[in-house]
Task: structure prediction
Amino acid sequence: MASGFSRTYTAAMRRDPLEYLSTELQALRDQGLYRRLRVLDAEQKARTSIDHRVVINLSSNNYLGLTTHPTLVERALEATRRLGVGSGSVRTIAGTMEIHMELERRLAAFKRTEAAVVFQSGFTANAGTVSSILGREDVIISDELNHASIIDGARLSRATIKVFPHRDAGAARQILKTLPREQRTLLITDGVFSMDGDLGALPELCDLAEEFGCIMMVDDAHASGVFGDCGRGTVDHFGLHGRVDVQVGTLSKAIGALGGYVAGSRALIEFLYHRARPFLFSTSHPPAVAAAGLAALDVLESEPQLIAQLWENTRFFKAGLQALGFDTGASESPITPVIVGDAALAMQLSDRLFEKGVFAQGIGFPTVPQGKARVRTIVTATHTRDELQFALDCFKAVGAELGILR
Ligand SMILES: *Cc1c(COP(=O)(O)O)cnc(C)c1O
Result:
């Protein structure tokens, strides 16, 4: 008991060194930016129950409804029964199972590259790749709206980071012109930008990469399963096979499970096996996750109507929001932002929609720039026309109520 007493005594005497965190949280509350986590009490679906309210879900990346697809569920269960729930090790020690290798072979074929490597997530795929293939002497030229995992990977690499204005290949060219000819340089863009739903300047950047001898890298997290033949991504969509050295994708969005991957040359992939820190130092996927990824690739090829339906829903919903008079930015994908500017207003819009039965998350700084706050909508292949019409009716009512629409 004495030791218990002394611990309590010490705690009571010691000022909480994390007190500043509470102060910052209070500041968020004062600005109307404090967010409680929304909790699903059902499956991740187009219509689900969140915080005990049945809502139309416009915030999921489950583009094709694969999170609950019977083929994926069955194959994940089968792999669990056959191989267990965990891999037990990192890939480079004892954590590489045949099912991991099979998934990598399938992903390489899907992306039409020599090889592929799977990471725990899209985040670790980007961060682990950028930080390992580049070093202190190198330069990274990056779109200003690239994903946080690219930014973190760039920082970890210690390379010089130069940011070009969004989609502005002309500005990227001006940066390249200032560099010595022999400078090793990475040119990097998202395929689809996650907060705006527009596409990276891929064709122009590929031209630049060839002209200046850069490594060309595309993060297709939101494009895989959505753009291109059977969902092969923006590289396929723009006809750029063979011109992008490093393609990143995720298994966490349209593929419906969890994970990230890099597709490219055999040498790139073998280098990542040796040097990418999340690959070396973090345990590989459970068999069920790899099995779900494999099943998803089968579904992409056997059920092309899913992608067709996704695009039909996208056209309907985007046109509906625009006809109501909302600012939907420059979106070209199933991601359609409703940009309102003020962060507190975006959160209010999201909250009122939720009360009416539509879940569309409000997004503010630092996820999007100050003054560009929005409610982001994502339709999926599995939303019905009635569900989308109901959501549009709610947007109309709440938009008028909050003075966003006049
Ligand atoms: C979601 C996302 C990631 C991260 O993928 P996860 O598999 O969720 O870790 C990376 N890049 C972009 C552009 C994304 O939108």
Remarks:
- The chain has two domains: 32-61+304-401, 70-302.
- Residues 121-123, 126, 147, 149, 190, 194, 219, 221-222, 250, 252, 260 surround pyridoxal-5'-phosphate (CB under 6 Å).
